[in-house]
């Protein structure tokens, strides 16, 4: 029996940028932020993408949600290439693929209350919903991420960093996506809060069946949440495998360097 097709498949993805200083009379090699990355994300599973700053992991995630330009390669959603779609043509896929950003404060509009922040994607993707239905959906989302519905009239600055990230997760869940790209979702949080957010993501996956591309620089966090791990360095994947294999028997020197940076207690 053949294995089911992956939810998301990335084939030889490249994202190159012009190098600063290049001009008409001066040619320069482009910045190869992502330079031939391939992987897949099965439905309802978590793929961890780990590497230090500048490795290309965040650019990979942003390319998938059309926040970074694709130079070449394919981004396939259930077999259909969505990487080259126009912004208008990509709109139906925005319901399927959402993103949680690293900075839980910078990603939320400080002038809007939480009801408005959570209602915005509903207004765009479900215009038939009434205002009362949107408010009920927002209350449900807040409960789902461990916050209280009566908090929806507050603004982002009235919440802690961990609570703001929960709001970011709620916003991503609003349109019932099948995949969420989590870009360093706990790196800006206190260590004491990180575990609770990771556990929340795992609980939501078990309840809703959502898949994650979990981007991080911390191998210990990636090990805890991922079913499969890819290690990126300088725009390419240098090693991949199960979390147990990557942490227990890394074969690439760069992976061993990342592993050495994991705190030991």
- Profile the largest sheet: 6 strands, mixed
Shape: globular
Judged by helices, strands and strand pairing, the structural class is alpha/beta
Element-level helix/strand string: EEEHEEHEHHHEHEHEEHH
Number of helices: 9
Spans of 5+ residues with little confidence (pLDDT < 50)?
Answer: none
Mean pLDDT: 91
Rg: 19 Å
Instruction: For the largest sheet, list the strands in their spatial order.
Output: 6-7-8-3-9-10
Bin the strand percentage: 15-25%
Number of strands: 10
**Percent helix among the residues?**
25-40%
What is the terminal-to-terminal distance? 45 Å
Task: Please describe the topology of this protein.
Layout (H helix, E strand, L loop, with lengths): L7 E10 L13 E11 L4 E5 L6 H8 L7 E6 L2 E2 L5 H8 L2 E4 L13 H12 L5 H14 L16 H13 L5 E5 L7 H18 L2 E6 L2 H7 L2 E6 L2 E6 L1 H6 L4 H8 L5
Parallel strand pairs: 3-8, 3-9, 6-7, 7-8
Antiparallel strand pairs: 1-2, 1-4, 4-5, 9-10
Helix pairs in contact: 3-4, 4-5, 5-6
């Amino acid at each position: 029996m053949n294995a089911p097709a992956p939810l998301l498949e990335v084939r030889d993805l490249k994202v190159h940028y012009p190098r600063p200083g290049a001009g008409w009379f001066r040619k320069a090699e482009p910045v190869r932020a992502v330079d031939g990355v391939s992987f897949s994300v099965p439905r309802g599973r978590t793929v961890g993408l780990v590497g230090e700053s500048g490795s290309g992991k965040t650019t990979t995630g942003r390319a998938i949600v059309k926040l970074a330009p694709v130079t070449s390669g394919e981004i396939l959603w259930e077999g259909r290439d969505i990487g080259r779609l126009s912004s208008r043509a990509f709109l139906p896929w925005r319901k399927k693929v959402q993103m949680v950003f690293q900075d839980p404060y910078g990603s939320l509009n400080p002038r809007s209350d939480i009801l408005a922040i959570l209602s915005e994607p509903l207004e765009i993707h479900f215009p038939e919903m009434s205002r009362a239905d949107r408010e009920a959906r927002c209350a449900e989302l807040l409960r789902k991420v461990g916050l209280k519905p009566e908090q929806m009239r507050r603004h982002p600055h009235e919440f802690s960093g961990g609570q703001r990230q929960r709001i970011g997760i709620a916003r991503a869940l609003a349109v019932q996506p099948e995949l969420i790209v989590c870009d360093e979702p706990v790196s800006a949080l206190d260590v004491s809060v990180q575990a609770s957010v990771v556990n929340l993501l795992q609980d939501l996956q078990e309840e809703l069946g959502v898949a994650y591309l979990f981007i991080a620089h911390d191998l210990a966090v990636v090990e805890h949440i991922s079913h499969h791990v890819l290690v990126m360095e300088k725009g390419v994947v240098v090693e991949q495998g199960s979390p147990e294999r990557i942490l227990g028997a890394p074969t690439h020197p760069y992976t061993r360097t990342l592993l050495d940076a994991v705190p030991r207690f």
